[in-house]
Write a structure and sequence with these properties.
- There is one protein chain.
- The protein is mainly alpha-helical.
- Helix content is 58%, strand content 11%.
- It has a single domain, classed as Tetratricopeptide repeat domain (Serine Threonine Protein Phosphatase 5, Tetratricopeptide repeat).
- Strand 2 and strand 3 form a beta hairpin.
- The chain starts with a helix and ends in a 5-residue tail after the last helix.
C-alpha cells in the first residue's frame, strides 16, 4: 500500500512522462548546455552523476558509491549526489546514514532544478534520480522530502515477529 502511495505521489510530482525509462542513450552535454557550460568541472560532475546512476540501476552499488564520493569531492554538497548516496545506504540497510545524507542534501536542494531522465527505486522505499541533459524544471527539494518521509516511515515500523 505504501509503495502505491509513493508511486502515485511521484507521478504527481514529476508527471507520468518524466518517469518512464528512456530507450535512447543519453547524450553527453555539449558546451552550450546551460547546466554545464564550458566548465570542465561541471562536465565531470554531470558525467559522474550519470555514470553512478547507471551503476546503481544495474545493482553495482560499490562502484556507484566510489564515483559519488568523487563527485562530492569535486562539488561538495551536491544534493543529487547526496540523495543518490542515501540510496546506496538504503540498499546496505544503513538507514541512519541515508537519513544523514538526505538531511545534508535538503537545504541545498531548494532551487536546485534538474531534468530527470530516469528514476531508480531502491528496496521499494527510496528513489534515486538520473539527471537529464539540459536545463530542468523539476526542483529537487520535494523529491528529497519525499525520500526523507519514506525513510522515517520505514524506520518507525515495528520489527516483524
Amino acid at each position: 500500500m505504501i509503495l502505491l502511495l509513493v508511486l502515485a505521489g511521484l507521478v504527481w510530482l514529476l508527471g507520468a512522462e518524466r518517469i518512464r525509462a528512456a530507450t535512447v542513450p543519453l547524450e553527453i552535454p555539449q558546451s552550450d548546455d546551460p547546466n554545464t557550460g564550458s566548465d570542465p568541472r561541471k562536465m565531470e560532475v554531470f558525467k559522474g552523476l550519470e555514470l553512478s546512476f547507471n551503476l546503481l540501476e544495474k545493482g553495482n552499488f560499490e562502484k556507484s558509491e566510489v564515483i559519488l564520493k568523487e563527485v562530492l569531492k569535486k562539488e561538495p554538497g551536491n544534493p543529487l549526489a547526496l540523495n543518490n548516496m542515501a540510496a546506496i545506504m538504503v540498499k546496505q540497510n544503513k538507514y541512519d546514514k541515508a537519513y544523514t545524507y538526505l538531511n545534508q542534501a535538503l537545504p541545498r536542494a531548494k532551487g536546485y532544478l534538474l531534468q530527470i531522465n530516469r528514476v531508480c527505486q531502491v528496496r521499494g522505499l527510496f528513489l534515486a534520480f538520473k539527471p537529464g541533459k539540459g536545463a530542468g524544471d523539476q526542483e529537487l527539494e520535494p523529491l528529497i522530502k519525499m525520500n526523507i518521509d519514506m525513510i522515517l516511515q520505514y524506520m518507525s515500523l515495528p520489527p516483524l515477529k
